[in-house]
């Protein structure tokens, strides 16, 4: 009889939100971050890890930054300050931002943390489009979280595909065995991917289908679905099909579509797991939720979140995550862990100071 021993069993919360250059001053993020008593994690527990990606954060000099962190990172830290979360890392490229927070108990199981950025907009000169990422050894496995903002507008499908391949080709890490994004055992890719609907349906007809919840019919026209089927881009990743209304484009401050653009599922979360690449080890990331958050009306996009049950299991044997790390990353690796004391103090500081921003 085969018995499985869990090396890791975590709930990972991912969120993407194009905030349209707005700051978070008056936003209450408790519902968005599942801090209101209801979560989609097993046993209604809080997530073990939050990884949050933003697009179009403000880059104006007037936006105050503390410890070189964007106000959105500070706002998240403030929101999580009562729940013993530690900031693991952040990376920003112009308006694209990714940040990661974890429960304090998981920090010893995180090693070789790296961030990377790839510019694609305006020939890669400005960085208004592109990707940022955080990769790490998590309980011995290689995990990459990628947040991207691809070329906008219906007619720019070719540019979006080029953006994707430029990110895949140019994103490089130092970790042994995990030099590129798809070398990783787990990949989570999310952001404002900007894919629209193919064909010539009018914005009004699309809205009518949305109001009648004919999502399946519209998703047959979705550019991301079509190009994944053809293998043009994102074909190595999986996506649970959205069962929520298109998240773009809204009149700011409302839940009404701005019909200057056809409604579209621009904001997406995809993932990939190499399940059985190590003898006796099984990797899995069962998706627990995929939803938009209609209550948040700050920008012309709705936030989109997903939760995953990340598991690492060993069959008929006992591994520590240290032993698994040696197997996956090589024993010569030099661990790099977050500065826990600084990160924890940072969260406490924010809880006191953020209201002054």
TrEMBL record:
The keyword Signal applies. One of its GO terms (biological process) is phosphatidylinositol dephosphorylation. GO terms for cellular component: neuron projection; plasma membrane; ruffle. The keyword Hydrolase applies. SUPFAM superfamilies: DNase I-like. It comes from Drosophila melanogaster. GO terms for molecular function: inositol trisphosphate phosphatase activity; phosphatidylinositol-3,4,5-trisphosphate 5-phosphatase activity; phosphatidylinositol-4,5-bisphosphate 5-phosphatase activity. Keywords: Hydrolase, Signal. Residues 8-316 form the Inositol polyphosphate-related phosphatase domain. This is LD06095p. Residues 1-21 form the signal peptide. Gene3D superfamilies: Endonuclease/exonuclease/phosphatase (3.60.10.10). It holds the Pfam family Exo_endo_phos2.
């Amino acid at each position: 009889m085969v018995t499985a021993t869990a090396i890791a069993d975590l709930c990972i919360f991912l969120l993407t939100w194009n905030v349209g250059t707005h700051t978070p001053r008056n936003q209450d993020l408790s519902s968005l971050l599942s801090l209101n008593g209801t979560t989609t994690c097993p046993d209604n527990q809080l997530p073990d890890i939050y990884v949050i990606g933003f697009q179009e954060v403000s880059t104006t000099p007037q936006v105050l930054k503390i410890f070189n962190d964007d106000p959105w990172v500070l706002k998240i830290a403030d929101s999580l300050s009562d729940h013993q979360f530690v900031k693991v890392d952040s990376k920003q490229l112009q308006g694209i931002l990714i940040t990661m927070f974890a429960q304090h108990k998981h920090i010893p199981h995180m090693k070789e943390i790296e961030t990377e950025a790839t510019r694609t907009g305006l020939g890669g000169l400005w960085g208004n489009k592109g990707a940022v990422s955080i990769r790490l050894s998590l309980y011995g496995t290689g995990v990459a979280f990628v947040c991207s903002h691809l070329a906008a507008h219906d007619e720019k499908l070719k540019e979006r595909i080029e953006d994707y391949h430029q990110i895949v080709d140019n994103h490089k890490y130092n970790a042994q065995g995990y030099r590129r994004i798809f070398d990783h055992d787990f990949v989570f890719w999310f952001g404002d991917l900007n894919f629209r609907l193919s064909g010539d349906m009018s914005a009004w007809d699309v809205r009518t289908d949305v109001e009648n919840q004919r999502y399946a019919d519209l998703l047959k026209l979705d550019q991301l679905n079509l190009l994944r089927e053809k293998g043009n881009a994102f074909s190595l990743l999986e996506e649970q099909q959205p069962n929520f209304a298109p998240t773009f484009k809204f009149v700011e401050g409302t839940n009404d579509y701005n019909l200057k653009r056809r409604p579209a599922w621009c904001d997406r979360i995809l993932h990939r797991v190499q399940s059985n690449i190590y003898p006796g080890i099984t990797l899995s990331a069962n998706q627990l939720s995929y939803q938009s958050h209609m209550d948040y009306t700050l920008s012309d996009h709705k936030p989109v979140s997903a939760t995953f049950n990340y598991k690492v299991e060993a069959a008929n044997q006992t591994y520590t995550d240290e032993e698994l790390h040696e197997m996956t990353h090589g024993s010569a690796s030099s661990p790099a862990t977050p500065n826990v004391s600084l990160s924890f103090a940072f969260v406490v500081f924010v809880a006191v100071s953020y209201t002054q921003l």
